Amino acid sequence: MRKITISVRNMVELVLRSGNIDSGYTSAHRAQHGIRIHQQIQRRRKKEAKLLGVSYESEVWMSLDFDYKKFSFKIEGRADGIFTTTEGSVGIEEIKSTSMPIDSIIAHEVHWAQAKMYAHMYCTANIVETIGVQITYCNYETEETAEIINTFSAKTLEDYFYKIVEQYYEFADMDDKRLAERMETARTLKFPYQGYRIGQRELAASVYKAIIQKRALFAEAPTGTGKTISVLFPAVKALEDGKIFYLTAKTVTRRVAAEALLTMQKHGLVMRSVVLTAKEKICFAEGRCNPLDCEYSHGHFDRVNAALIDIITNETIILRDQLEYYSLKYKVCPFELSLDVCMFCDCVICDYNHVYDPKTQLKRFFGDNAHKRGEMILLNDEAHNLVERGRDMFSAKLSREDFGLRGMFRGSNRKLYSLLGTIRKWFKSLEGISLVYALPVDLTMQLREFVPLADIWLMENMAHPRHKEFLELYFRVLDFLRISEFFDERYVAMLDEQSSRRSPGSNPSIKLICLDFSVLLSNTHRKLRSAVFFSATLTPLTYFRDVFGGMEDDFGVKLPSPFPKNNLCLTVAQIDTTYKSRQNNIASVSEYIYTFITSRRVGNYLIFFSSYEYMNNVHEHFAGIYPDISLIIQTGGMGENEKEDFLEMFTPEPGRVLAGFVVMGGIFSEGIDLKGERLCGVAAVGVGLPTISAERNVLSGYYKDRLGKGFEYAYMYPGMNKVLQAAGRVIRTETDRGAVLLIDSRFTSYAYRRLFPGEWEHWVKAASTAQLSDILKRFWDEGFTYNSI
To answer: At CA 194, angle to CA 188 and CA 195, rounded to 5?
Structure first.
């Protein structure tokens, strides 16, 4: 008999939810107000009880174990208060804070249900025949209260209790069938291909071992290994009564994960999975999430449970199309439906921020009160992207311009007008300063004063034409304050560099920069069963283990490329491309690029640069001296359609030489699958170092003090991973042949050569363009082998 543990609140709120979605303004301090009001009323009750000679206990933990049909239930929770008299009379109190006027309060069914469930649990445990049930409402602005009291027999409460349990049973039964189907089919599931590629079995075994032993795994698996299936397959085999969260930064990678699950489904696996889509992309009403503007918000909670049961019963791999179909069928919000679907799925495919970002984290799974976190498995795909994403998630920024709304309060709200002026003066005092700061306590104090004032204004001025604009500022301030709570020795507060160089009248800004978020990630990971980080570029593994909060005894694996080494020609041109010398060497760089791309009669090439400025300078020179070459160039802010138009130029049967000039680490560095003749070569100009900045230098200083590897952690390793990503665009299948040219003298130094993957051991130095031409001509000769060089 399967045991189900669930809180009173979660059970009641699931089966009895009703009404509209309204994402309009709600005070960020409402929860804090609610806690304060609860405690205030509970203190008052204790004083009253003492005067009346009765007993009052607050926050009473209660639980009830019982069997119902095929399940063994454990229902638990905290009753806000319990009265007992010397005569044995008992009363259960449920306290609720509200924004509604007290004289218009009608007790909500969900609130009655919670109180009556606790009352039944008390009667069962204490053999009580009748009990009082009281709901106390308190307006969190006026602090006025209303008390609604009823007396129930134990039998009436028992009947009501099992009525709620019966309504929940449909969900429990559905989920039990889901779990049983997955467990049985996963047990008999075989690897869904005839054999393993090189490195694939080792990766799958490493993932399984890490999950079983509850460790983290850091795995570098080159392109062609088949990482997605090699990670998902063992995770499915090792999964028990928990969930897999497959995390990635890109839509295309989420699609690949869904395809891997579909492949396993075709081989017998029955497992519910959902791919989450960002709210702004899947919303039917273009963000107008309120019952007046959106028919899917109006009455959403009246219909969503029927939609939820239908989609889980009839679908297994739930993509955007399925979510939209059932949302239209039941007229519910597709985004909110997708979040509910997560509760009844085995695998959730989503962005990193759904797990790690304190602003957008799925609280029902990763919040402080989440259940079953110890059974969850995280699979972090393309994990190299998590370094900068993670640093951004735990950083925050505010500028003087953000508080430019001050004028709207002139003459209408003296307190806000004055406070915003004070905050703007604080920012103005920063002009001309370029120092690194500790946490700006004076600013955070002003911001904490701002929040309750903004709360009141936002609640009282919902129809104001600038309400949305002010709400956005409010959220930015809350984010800044939230991040300030994390501030410790791993953080620094820094004035924006550009601001410090500007003249008076500029827009100075302050940023709370998370230099090291390893502890914040490890706080999440230690509550889970296992976290797996994998990518084609995790070099060196120790760097990623440190940055992601890994432990010394976590597992690490570097796998060989499954492709024949003779399919790749790797050459290095020793040209100084450091910032101080690159302008003088543009002609030499252009000559090497020209030789590289004209070594065949026709072909498509990508030329990667470390910055837009460098790319544009070389492009201008190259186009002027080699006008016969077809060139296309990446521009800043390219959208998805422009990106696709760019890639469509790389045809599988090129009738010319085409060179695309692009930026390392940008949209063409990964997720680009130009197989066969669509791409025959890549040149990487420079070692990919991030732009030198005060922020990067502070990061370097932090890691120098902590690990003695400041330059490596701030510049070298992030840069080299961008180079490896760029080079990885060339060989995509076992039959692909291609060339890579690395242009920078630093690539021949030991510091960089030790970061070369194993399949690069045959690299060749091209001391001149003539030598490069000779190497490439022999490579493109079908009889080529590296023994001939």
So the answer is: 105
